[in-house]
């Protein structure tokens, strides 16, 4: 965990094949301690989450085991065939925008069940470093189990994307797909993604939201009629993009129903 300012407390750890599965992490700076349970460090901060973040955490904990199936069925019910039936190709479309290389260090926030991790791992190779964070421990357990089965080396932690427990400027690329619309502090989350990225790193953020004019099409009308929570009415939060960036692009993918904000952290 060299990318984080932590140490594992001596006498408070349990290892299985050199992996710490139970223990306590201590912050070298503030000396606060955080538990490791089932191989997942719980670095959520602050302890009292904003209501929307807490609701998001509870939902994903409760739906973790069936989350992917429910998501796919939901996409199909909305007529979003491209993502539901060709998910890997759709995900690769965004991951390719990160311009990954074999030795890159990559962070995915809101990693969920880890569907993007195999694609990223294949592009950065064994020379690369892959990290993933999510606010939900339940969904991270699913991701951890799946990555072990696939033999993919990834460092997974439970963390609030608005308070990432990583050092500044350490990742060659940062990815976030889904969930940002529901964040309690979208601006801070985007600023944190920018903070942990190295100068020159690509950052790609994606979430639900219809492209301008899409609401007038048959698909747009269908989605809005069935979207009871209003997720697809959301607009890309470009007002929260930090100043020190370049190559800003805003566009829509997957039948123009998911927005994408893409930029590069300005080289100093």
Lay out the secondary structure.
Elements: E1 6-16, E2 19-27, E3 33-37, E4 40-41, H1 51-63, H2 67-77, H3 81-85, H4 87-95, E5 105-109, H5 117-124, E6 129-134, H6 137-150, E7 155-158, E8 171-177, H7 186-196, E9 197-208, H8 218-226, E10 245-253, E11 258-265
Parallel strand pairs: 5-6, 5-8, 6-7, 8-9
Antiparallel strand pairs: 1-2, 2-3, 3-4, 9-11, 10-11
**Which blocks of ≥5 consecutive residues have pLDDT under 50?**
6-18
Shape label: globular
Mean pLDDT: 87
What profile does the largest beta sheet have? Answer: 7 strands, mixed
CATH architecture level-2 label of the largest domain: 3-Layer(aba) Sandwich
Report the β-strand fraction as a percent range: 25-35%
CATH superfamily of the largest domain: Vaccinia Virus protein VP39
Radius of gyration: 18 Å
The largest beta-sheet arranges its strands as: 7-6-5-8-9-11-10
Q: Whole-Å distance between the termini? A: 26 Å
CATH class of the largest domain: Alpha Beta
Binned, the helix content reads 25-40%
Order of helices and strands: EEEEHHHHEHEHEEHEHEE
What is the count of structural domains?
2
Number of strands: 11
Could you explain how this protein is built, in words?
The chain is α/β, with parallel strands linked by helices and 268 residues long. It has two domains: 1-38, no CATH class; 43-265, Vaccinia Virus protein VP39 (Rossmann fold), CATH 3.40.50. 30% of the residues lie in helices and 29% in strands. It is built from eight helices and eleven strands. The protein has a seven-stranded mixed beta sheet with strand order 7-6-5-8-9-11-10. Strand 8, helix 7 and strand 9 (197-208) form a beta-alpha-beta unit. The longest helix has 14 residues, at 137-150.
């Amino acid at each position: 965990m060299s990318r984080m300012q932590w140490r594992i407390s001596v006498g408070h750890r349990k290892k299985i094949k050199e992996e710490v599965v139970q223990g306590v992490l201590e912050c070298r700076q503030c000396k606060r301690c955080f538990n490791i349970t089932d191989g997942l460090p719980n670095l959520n901060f602050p302890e009292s989450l904003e209501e929307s973040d807490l609701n998001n955490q509870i939902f994903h904990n409760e739906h973790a085991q069936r989350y992917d199936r429910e998501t796919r069925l939901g996409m199909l019910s909305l007529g979003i065939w491209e993502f539901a039936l060709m998910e890997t190709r759709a995900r690769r479309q965004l991951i390719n925008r990160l311009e990954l290389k074999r030795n890159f260090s990559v962070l995915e926030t809101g990693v969920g069940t880890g569907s993007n991790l195999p694609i990223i791992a294949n592009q950065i190779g064994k020379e690369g470093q892959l990290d993933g964070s999510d606010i939900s421990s339940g969904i991270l357990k699913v991701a951890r189990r799946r990555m072990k089965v696939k033999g993919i080396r990834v460092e997974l932690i439970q963390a609030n994307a608005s308070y990432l427990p990583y050092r500044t400027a350490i990742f060659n690329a940062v990815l976030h797909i889904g969930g940002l619309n529901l964040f309690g502090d979208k601006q801070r989350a985007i600023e944190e993604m920018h903070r942990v990225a190295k100068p020159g790193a690509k950052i790609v953020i994606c979430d639900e939201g219809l492209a301008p004019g899409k609401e007038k099409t048959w698909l747009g009308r269908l989605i809005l009629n069935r979207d009871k929570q209003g997720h697809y009415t959301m607009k890309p939060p470009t007002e929260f993009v930090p100043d020190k960036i370049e190559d800003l692009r805003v566009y829509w993918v997957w039948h123009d129903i998911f927005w994408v904000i893409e930029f590069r952290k300005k080289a100093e």
